[in-house]
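// run 5 | inverse folding | seed 20
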């Protein structure tokens, strides 16, 4: 990507900082004067105005009060919460367990009509088998979640998978060939998953592409991502869950998906790679 995957978050924070700066200047105040009115250290207002520090809701209320703009506080707090919601660390998202994190995404899947998913390390969640999902979520739970609600989380993800069989939706899945050989859960689980992949790939609403392993590719693998219509992109990173809504960045991910899709094989050729991966398990 030409810009970092967190640039949408930074843009949102900068936009809030710019609005607060405008309020300060509109009130005829310097940053130091505003800090004095709020009872802050002089450097705090500067850090907020330059988007180096994210204000709290109470900070925003104090800022608006100092500028004589109490009527704008709630709108600015809404912008603050929207910016914070773009990036959620796994610890925060999964503090009560995995089930809630799975259920929270259901409305997004239900309202989306065109799904595009690229995965460079695991099968996309919508086309995972129950045992594969259980292996994935169990690994997640062991690594970073104290609450063990894996069984409930698996059920929630399987419930979400029902959208793939509903009408009026299109699905395009791209996986790297290495995903076909990533044996999380063991050989039997992977073999079952690959058989399921062959079945899913035959659905009329589904386009399934496999990007072959080769030494002379023109486009390197990137982080896995989902595109929901052209309204939102979600990226799962090591440290957290990123939501992108900036149109220019969504377009970048859409272009990247197209580039990777052009490298992929489909139909008979994709099934041949899947079948070869299954044969290797035996």
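// decoded
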């Amino acid at each position: 990507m030409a810009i970092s995957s967190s640039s949408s978050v930074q843009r949102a924070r900068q936009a809030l900082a710019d609005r607060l700066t405008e309020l300060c200047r509109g009130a005829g105040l310097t940053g130091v004067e505003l800090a004095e009115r709020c009872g802050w250290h002089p450097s705090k207002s500067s850090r907020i105005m330059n988007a180096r520090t994210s204000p709290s809701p109470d900070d925003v209320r104090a800022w608006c009060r100092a500028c004589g703009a109490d009527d704008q506080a709630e709108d600015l707090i809404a912008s603050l919460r929207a910016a914070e919601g773009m990036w959620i660390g796994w610890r925060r998202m999964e503090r009560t367990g995995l089930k809630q994190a799975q259920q929270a995404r259901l409305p997004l899947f239900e309202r989306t009509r065109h799904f595009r998913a690229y995965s460079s390390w695991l099968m996309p969640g919508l086309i995972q088998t129950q045992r594969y999902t259980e292996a994935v979520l169990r690994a997640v739970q062991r690594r970073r979640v104290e609450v063990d609600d894996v069984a409930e989380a698996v059920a929630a993800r399987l419930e979400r998978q029902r959208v793939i069989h509903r009408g009026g939706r299109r699905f395009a899945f791209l996986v790297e060939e290495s995903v076909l050989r990533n044996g999380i859960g063991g050989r039997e689980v992977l073999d079952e998953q690959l058989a399921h992949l062959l079945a899913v790939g035959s659905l009329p609403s589904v386009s399934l592409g496999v990007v072959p392993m080769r030494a002379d590719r023109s486009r390197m693998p990137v982080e896995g991502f989902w595109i929901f219509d052209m309204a939102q992109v979600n990226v799962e990173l090591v440290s957290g869950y990123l939501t992108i809504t900036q149109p220019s960045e969504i377009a970048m991910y859409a272009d990247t998906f197209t580039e990777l899709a052009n490298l992929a094989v489909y139909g008979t050729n994709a099934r041949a790679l899947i079948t070869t991966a299954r044969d290797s398990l035996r």
